[in-house]
């Protein structure tokens, strides 16, 4: 029976993420998309970003991934600035974005190919990753033969490929149905608890945020700014049963209230 | 050390996928049906054609009987001029196709990749695409003469556009999220091209190439109609002038076969090159 412990040794070396007075405006003269964002995320912490559509959650992740510039402020992952192609940052999107001409195995291998890494080590690592996300029975399948949940598992394995210290997840489970979403969310939470990678998770689901996170950052829109920073003091490892506890509901309620008036769509 | 056992948990993905049931397949989906039904239609059509000519429903001077057509085809296939004409038309078609689709690929790739090209060239592509290009056949005859060149040019011009348009569309179909992903991995421009852009564009571009091959044959025949000494198009025209309609029909039937064979070959090539289409 496979366990993560057999699959690989834990990293437990997440990087600290710091945002200091960050400003972002897409077009001059318009209201900033992000205004005066200050955030400190501890190594190994899992932090959720929640907030109404358009409040700048994806923008924040793109800044951290080095995909876009920002006007003012300071951003650091570890002691370095964000930059494209940093191997210590893993990125996962709402869509699995798999290459149909590559098998499951080859999709997971993509980051190694781009980084120019090959050899038996890489092959072994790819096998381990596929086992980790529970797709060993589908290694040679093509993306279109997979269910949405399985596709997202491939995407997760690929994001973990180069053993990043930071994971940036932009609504990774939103395209899945409720049941799969809960299940994969919990599975990811357990991986996180084991691996200790610093993780930022963007989600529209408050229960998902409560279930998975150490902290929930609620953002308001126009301009995007932090309206609440809620600590989730539920015990780890998290279990599905926590949803029924009063503490879980209290935390969810606190987040909901922080967002009231920001946008009706969220609560 | 804590161990977390992932496999012990039920996997939602699998639980939700129902066990495959033996599917009820309709007879219409089976291979015998797919061969048999069209064969019946073809046989009926040929039968009706034959009967209506034999019964005097149509004038046999203008519409030859099916039997006469096939006899004419069989007789023609014993002659040397027929195979010479076939070889010439094939050469015109394939040369025109090679020139037109290679140029189409190059122009399409430039147009799809560089915005300067797109802005500068696209209006003309659209304009030409909507021009009946066969109208140029007489012009090409004047420019390139009675021989093979004017037909090659005609074929090339006709099959150029679908390749350009499909190549541009293919390049434009690259998923923005996939580009983002490649950027997060720090992929170089050549890496992004060979690992993402090219495989994304290839199936769409190839669909244009398939159309181009069929159009190239059309271009060659039109070129021959307008002015040539030899070729299958010339045979069709001359047989009709001489009221040897059975032979004229026979050449058309033969052209249909050539078209089908070419299409089959390019589809075979497609399946070998683009294995990830389903
Ligand atoms: N490339 C861009 N150019 C101009 N404006 C943009 C761009 N990307 C995002 N925006 C704008 O910036 C704001 C924040 O966008 P962002 O995608 O970060 O929001 P979000 O919080 O992720 O929303 P959602 O929950 O819908 O994903 C929106 O108003 C959006 O219209
Ligand atoms: Mg977003």
Automatic annotation (TrEMBL), chain A:
The keyword Transport applies. It comes from the Bacteria. Pfam families: ABC_tran. Residues 17-246 form the ABC transporter domain. One of its GO terms (molecular function) is ATP hydrolysis activity. This is NitT/TauT family transport system ATP-binding protein. Keywords: ATP-binding, Nucleotide-binding, Transport. InterPro entries: AAA+_ATPase (IPR003593), ABC_transporter-like_ATP-bd (IPR003439), ABC_transporter-like_CS (IPR017871), ABC_transporter_ATP-bind (IPR050166), P-loop_NTPase (IPR027417). SUPFAM superfamilies: P-loop containing nucleoside triphosphate hydrolases. The keyword ATP-binding applies. It comes from Marihabitans asiaticum. Signal peptide: none annotated.
From TrEMBL, chain B:
It is found in: Cell membrane. The chain crosses the membrane at residues 35-58, 94-114, 121-146, 152-174, 212-236, 248-269. GO terms for cellular component: plasma membrane. Keywords: Cell membrane, Membrane, Transmembrane, Transmembrane helix, Transport. It comes from the Bacteria. One of its GO terms (biological process) is transmembrane transport. Its main location: membrane. InterPro entries: MetI-like, MetI-like_sf. It is a multi-pass membrane protein. Residues 90-270 form the ABC transmembrane type-1 domain. It holds the Pfam family BPD_transp_1. Belongs to the binding-protein-dependent transport system permease family. This is NitT/TauT family transport system permease protein. It comes from Marihabitans asiaticum. The lineage of its organism: Bacteria, Bacillati, Actinomycetota, Actinomycetes, Micrococcales.
